[in-house]
Amino acid sequence: MMVYVTSSDATDAQTRKLEDVCFPDERVAIGSKFFNTIKVTAGDAQQDRLLAKYGKSEPRIVLVNRDYSVAAVVEGKGISSGKLVKAMAKAAKKDYKDSFDTMVSKYAKLLNELDRLEGEKALAADALNRAGDNKAKIKKAKRKQAQYEKDFAKWQKAEEKLLTFRLKTLKKPKV
User: What are the angstrom distances between the C-alpha of 139 and each of 32, 61, 74, 142?
Assistant: First the structure.
């Protein structure tokens, strides 16, 4: 889990930095796919038995592993995209067989491919609009659209495969 403990003050400089700079960072946005993300207020965090123990600053990000151990806390003035990505990689390493950095890199490439496909889709639609009554141009534009549909289906399968994470086996707690 990635728990975002937010400040009650929306004008807080650290909260704005986190929401305007860190969260939009591509590595953070893609890497968050490894986690169930939760946003809680500082007041709710103080009442939670796990979150109350870890960190006191607002805002803060608490990364929790599947066994409910806390992998990392990034808080206050120490929040940066780089530190958050490092903490996310550390947390993911404990629970996943898949490399965090590799997944983020491959997904970024996949998003670039989607941008290319969307451009092709727009070109095919434009070609169809410009074809008028010309049957040859209509046929060519429809072939382009059909090719886009095939390529997009391949893209969706690649995304699904990439986002199917392989979990490590949890170790049984010592009793």
Answer: 43, 54, 56, 5
Amino acid at 92: A
Question: CA-CA distance, 89 to 84, in Å (whole number)?
Answer: 9
10-66 per-position pLDDT tens digit: 788 888 888 899 999 999 999 998 899 999 998 899 899 888 899 888 899 999 998
Asked if residues 73 and 63 have their Cβ atoms less than 8 Å apart, the reply is: yes
- What is the rounded CA–CA span in Å between residue 115 and residue 140? 22
3-state secondary structure the chain: CEEEEECCCCCCHHHHHHHHHHCCCHHHHHHHHHCCEEEEEHHHHHHCCCHHHCCCCCCEEEEECCCCCEEEEEEHHHCCHHHHHHHHHHHHHHHECCCHHHHHHHHHHHHHHHHHHHHHHHHHHHHHHHHCCCHHHHHHHHHHHHHHHHHHHHHHHHHHHHCCCCECCCCCCCC
In tens, the pLDDT along 62-105 reads: 999 988 889 999 988 878 999 999 999 999 998 889 899 999 99
